[in-house]
Structure formats: structure tokens, C-alpha cells
Amino acid sequence: MSDPLTPTAGGAAAGRTGVAVQMVDMHRSYGPVHALDGLSIEIAPGELVALLGPSGCGKTTALRALAGLDELDSGRILVDGRDMTSVPANRRDMGMVFQAYSLFPNMTARDNVAYGLRLRGMDARARQQRADEMLELVGLVGQAGRYPHQMSGGQQQRVALARALAIRPQVLLLDEPLSALDAKVRRQLREEIRRIQIMVGITALFVTHDQEEALAVGDRVGVMSAGRLEQIAPPAELYDRPRTRFVAEFVGLTNRLAGEARDGGAEVLGTRVPLLTGSATSGRVTALVRPESVRLTLEPGADAHVVAVSFLGAMCRVQVALASGGLVVAQMAAADAAGLAPGVAVRVTVLPAPVFAVTDSPG
Amino acid sequence: MSAVSSPQRRRRYGRTATRTAILLAIGGYFLVPLFAMLEFSTRGKGGTRTPDAWLAIADDPNLVEAILNTLGIAALTVLGMLLLLVPTMAWVMLRVPRMRRVVEFLCVLPLAIPAIVLVVGIAPVYRVLNGLFGGSILTLAFVDVILVLPFAYRAIDGGLRSVDVVTLSDAARSLGASWPRVMGQIIVPNIRGGILSASVLAVALVLGEFTISSLLSYDTLQVVINLLGKRNAFTSVAVSLAALIFGFVLLYVIARFAPGSQVRGRAAEEGE
């Protein structure tokens, strides 16, 4: 196997060095609860797949099963074509970063990073050199002699990442590694994780319940619900073309607007929009419309009016009360929100972008 | 500095005075009996002071043998207790957490059983042990391991709960560590505080244990001190005081020079 820590020319797009991972029909139950209910995922070499879902959907169970830390009731796990289902965790050759701080408190940052190398019988000098290289990779070269309790949460997770990568694992597993950090450090570190993953070219599975995080880091994002994979797709496709109601409602914000469906399209707020595959196709439907697909036009005397305007930096989010009594959220560039203030009358339309429609009543 | 106002200063003095008073009261509670023992054990004729009772300790072969035997029992008890409890408790925490209550109940049980009942129950076992080990006094370590379980369980449980044992062992496993390595290189070094506390408690219990040794007719330190007290009260008290001082010194040495405290000290020095 080639060294996964050798930076690849051009990163992920050119010359990936990771291995393929296949999780096939995985089942795992805890009493009456099906944590995994026939989950199958394939990860291409060098790809980062983000598993997204609400608490208890089985995403961490899937990752732990891949790591060998949880056993499966049935199903198979193949890594680089080799069946790893029965291989114990300590022989799977996978690097893992945990949600909780997992550095060994009795070891310095350098010793933590070198621990896996020590287990592999590398001599002291070589493993110290490699540990220092890995700490440099995560920007902590000056912290090698520090103990975990002397480092911030972000620094500890960087060391944990360096430790996971130091052993040249076949697959990198990240179990909500940023959830204990504050918002600013989260953003910085997730970008760093992505940069390093692309540079190293390692195959990675990233579990998170934060959709912004999943959409930001994943080559593809898998959305899980009740132990099953609802959809797995590149972030833009997942957001723009959800295949199930769960995905449409779980990923991003949606407005639930009443419409009339027929002939592969629906009439929503006076606009005919195409319907996505899997949608209800006839009769009264509820269309799930993204806030950025809602258009507001200043029109004195219009029967809808602005309720609230939230400034989000480059964007603005505007809540509008419809004459029917429902609320609609629109999102637009801050520059386009000039003149929108609570009480202002507006006309509400939707862009003719494809939407997902369901058959229950609008909320 | 003048920035400290006088009400604040009064409050600070008040707190210091309270702390000092509490310290003196507790210190007196512990130290007065010890000074009384020292005073009694060094009494000579006509109000003089003499070290005779202390020097007599080394001259009494039965006493020396009892001290050595008791130290041997203490060492075996600590070893047996650690070998039994640390892997069991770590395994229960990692693999079968639902069994925790059962293990806790079993470990606390010796507290609820009177010594005489224990001896009656253990006597048949000791007949077998005597057959195997020739009636060695060191076999008392078996029963002392049982007696120390309630105290050692609490100490080790505290150690295991002070770190995220599950995540640490998962991390070590994912890096390639076998279970014995997880235990030896990750869990044990990180629960050193609990292990040391349990060990000190075990030594203290063995040094002070009298009832069961006496009922099983083994001449441990406390049994010999009791016999000695009937013929030479001064030496008896001197030995008792020496045993107490030994316990204190052991506690201090372990707390001060244990590897864990050195790591913490070094870490603190290297901190900001």
C-alpha cells in the first residue's frame, strides 16, 4: 500500500491514495431498538463521506462498527476488498478521532501521537520524529511537551487528529470531533480537517449531527434516519434535490406551502414548480420550498406583510405573514433586503426551482 | 495594598482564624493520643524518660517475626486485591456495565458480615489452604483481601470515574493496543490515585486487623501486641505507636513520591 500521508499532487481530485470501504446490509439491535437496519454505504478511495442525522439515528453505531468497536448482528464490512467484519478493533488499521477528549492524560502530546507507532514497534527516535511531523501538520509543533490538561479543547482535538493519522491508517474515522468546541474553533478545525484529509488523500467517514458541518466537509453526505440511509449524495444535490421527505425536511430550512400537483408539477403561490422524484404527484399537496427560493417584492396594498427581518451578515432572513395566516421565510442577499421592515406589504412568489411535495396539510 | 478595604481584611482574617482553629482541633484530636502513647512508652522510674520499651522491640524475636509476617501479609493483600479488583472493575465498566451493581454489592458485603461469621464460613476453606500451603501465616492474605474489598472498591471506583475509561480504551484499541496493553499502559497509569488509595487502605487494614487473625490462631502484629500488652504494657504501646507512624510515613511516601504525583508536578511546572 502506498503511504497515505504523502501529499497527493492536486489533492483529492488528482491521485487519491485511500482505499475503498464497503459497508453492506449492516444490522445492529439493542433490545427492541434497531440502531442499524440494513445500512449499506460505499466510500470511494480518498473520499470523505459525512454521515448526518438526528441523535439516535445510528450514525455513530455505523462508525463504531466500521472501527470494530461495536459488533454487528449481521452484515459485512469490506476495506480495500478485504472482509474486516470479524477483525478486532486493534487490527483494523483505522485512525479514529472521538467526540469526547480522548488524549491519554498521562502522556504528553508527542507521546500521545507516538503511542500507535510504539505499538507498531517503531524505534524511539523514528517515532519521535514522526510525531513531531504530525504535530507540525496540525499546527502544534510548539506544544509537543504539553500534557492534555495544559491544552485547549481545539488543541486536544488537533493532537487527536495527529495521533489518528500518525499510524498511517487505511481509513480515518471522525466521530463528531468538533461537537465539544465553540463555534469559531469548530469552523477553523473543520476546514483544517478537510484540508489535511485532501492533502493526505485518506478515505474518511465523518459523523455529525450538524448539517452545516456535514455539507461543508463531505464529498458526499449520507442522511440517516432510524438506522437506515435515506439518501447519500454530494452536498449540493442533497440540498437541491432531496429524494425523501425526511431529507427535504431535515437538511436546511424549508417552508411548507400549500399547492396543487398535476402533470409532474405543482402550483405554489401562483408559480408552477417542477416536482422532485418521490414527491406526491396529484391533488392538494404541501410543497417544501427553500427560503432562498422565495421572492419578495415591495408592493403597497399586497396582502402579505413582513413580520421580522434577521440580519445574518451577507444574507438576510425575512419572515412574512401570508393573508391565509401562514408564515413564510425568505432568504436573500442583504443588499436585496433594502426597504424590507416589519409591517411592510410585500408580494410573495416562489422561483420555479424543483421542490419536494408531500400530501399532508401545510404547517 | 491600601486597595484592600478593612471589611474585606476582617473577613479574610476571620476565614484564616476559622481554618486555623479547625486545623488545631483536628490536629489535636489525632496528635494528643499519639503524644500520650509516646509519653507512656518512654516513662522510666522516678519520672525519668527511657527508650527501653522502644529498644525492646528489636530484642523480642516473636515481635520481630510478627512484624515481618504482617508486612508480608500486607504486601500479598495489596497484590491480591489489585489483581482481583482492577481488571474486574475495568472490565465491568468497559464491557458489562449492567453488572456494576452486582459487583459493588459483592464487594461491600464483607462490611455487613460479622468477623465471627466470616471465620466460621472461612474455616473449611482454610483447612484446604493449610493442606496446600502448610498452614503458612501468609494465607491470611486471602481473608484480608476479602476484608479490604469494600474500601478498595470505593477507592478504585473513584479512580475509574475520574477519567473517561471507555473513550480512552476505545482510542487505544483503535491505535492497535491489545486488551492487556490497554489495561497496563492506559487504564492503570490513569487511575494511579485510586490504586494508591486502595493500597494504603489495604496496608492500614492488615496492620490493624486483630479479630480474624486471633480467631484463626495466627500471630500477626496485633495479636502479638495484645499478648505483649499483658506482660509489658510499655513495649506494647511502643509497638502500636511505631505501627501507626509506619502507616503515616507510608501514606506520605506514596502520596509524595508516587509516579502520578511526579507527572502532575512536572506538568504543572511546564504549564503557563
Describe it for me?
- The complex is a heterodimer of chains A (363) and B (272).
- With 363 residues, chain A is α+β, with helices and mostly antiparallel strands.
- Chain A is 23% helix and 33% strand.
- Chain A has helices at residues 59-67, 109-119, 124-137, 153-166, 183-200, 211-217, 235-240, 245-250, and strands at 21-30, 33-43, 48-52, 74-79, 82-83, 94-97, 171-175, 203-208, 220-225, 228-233, 255-262, 265-268, 271-274, 283-289, 294-298, 304-311, 315-321, 327-333, 345-350, 356-358.
- In chain A, the strands form four sheets. Chain A has a six-stranded mixed β-sheet with strand order 6-7-8-3-9-10, sandwiched between helices.
- The longest helix of chain A is centred in the middle third of the chain and has 18 residues, at 183-200.
- The relative contact order of chain A is 0.13.
- Mean pLDDT of chain A is 90; it is low at 1-16.
- Chain B is an all-alpha fold and 272 residues long.
- The radius of gyration of chain B is 23 Å and the shape is flat.
- Mean pLDDT of chain B is 87; it is low at 262-272.
- The A-B interface holds A 67-69, 88-96, 98, 100-106, 115-116, 119-120, 145-147, 149-150, 160, 163-164, 167, 173 and B 163-164, 167-168, 170-178, 181, 185-186, 189-190, 260, 263, 267, 270-272.
Strand order of the largest sheet of chain A: 6-7-8-3-9-10
* Poorly predicted parts of chain A: 1-16
Mean pLDDT of chain A: 90
- Major beta sheet summary of chain B: none
Order of helices and strands of chain A: EEEHEEEHHHEHEHEEHHEEEEEEEEEE
Distance between the termini of chain A: 54 Å
Low-confidence stretches of chain B: 262-272
Tally of helical runs of chain A = 8
Oligomerization status of the protein chains: heterodimer
Instruction: Give average pLDDT of chain B, whole number.
Output: 87
Overall morphology of chain B: flat
Largest sheet of chain A: 6 strands, mixed
